[in-house]
Structures are given as structure tokens and as C-alpha cells.
Give the backbone structure.
Amino acid sequence: MTQKIFSGRETSPSVYHAHEWGQQLEKDLLDLLIKEAKGNDTRKARFCVHPDPSETLQITYLAFVNPYLDRIHRHPGREEIVIPLQGMAMHTTFDLDRNKLGSQLLDGSNPVALTSKIDAWHSIEVLSDFFVMLEIGVGPFTSNSTVYL
């Protein structure tokens, strides 16, 4: 496990929350997230700008290192916006039989937001050495906020 490098509170392994809204973030936050992701078994790290999972507004920086492929999942009743910041990944949507419905390249060199339909089954596969994105959604985030196929 890597040394804890963020000014936020670690609320679960490699998941950090800001202490309060308006907290100044590290200038090298994205690099720190990538370093954290490289140092753990999940190959993923996140920094939540929102101080608590119960917040209505959820803003999260996520870093993934290759190889990484999400399990197919959805967020019941929640919209989700993803903005690629560094690297490349493929965002793919699926039906209930795991058939691919469509894919969209997420490219940090062209940080255009992707909006997911409510209840869409989806996953992200990292294509570059690492991938960093900003995810914006509605809360609260609970144990039922992500459902896997």
C-alpha cells in the first residue's frame, strides 16, 4: 500500500473525501491519484470534493491504471456526467444480456463531457497507461448506489 498523500480523509481504501466544501486541492492532485492507483490492488483511486457521501452534489476525481476494466454496473435513479482529464478510456453501455449497445472514447486531450442515461448499464476500460476523469452525479451515495450486472 502506498503512503497516504492527500489532505482529505481516507474513508475507505484509496477513497478520500475533502474535509469541507471549498477546500484547496493539491496542485498535483491528478499525479497523486495516479500514484495511489498504481499502489493498490484495485488499480483505482478517488478524491471526492464533496466532504460526505450524504451530500446531494457528488464531485469525484478518479484515476485508473492499466490494465483496468470496470465490472458492468449502473446507478439506479442517478444521472452521471464524466469528463476525461488525462489518458484514454472506452465507455461502453450494455443491455441486460451483456450485449454491447454502444461505446464512446473518453480522451483527456479532448475533455468533452459524457452524460449517461439514468439506469444505463456501463463500464470503463482504460486504453492508455492511466486514465483520470472527473465524475459528477447526484447523491447521497449509499451501498445501493451502484448495482452490478
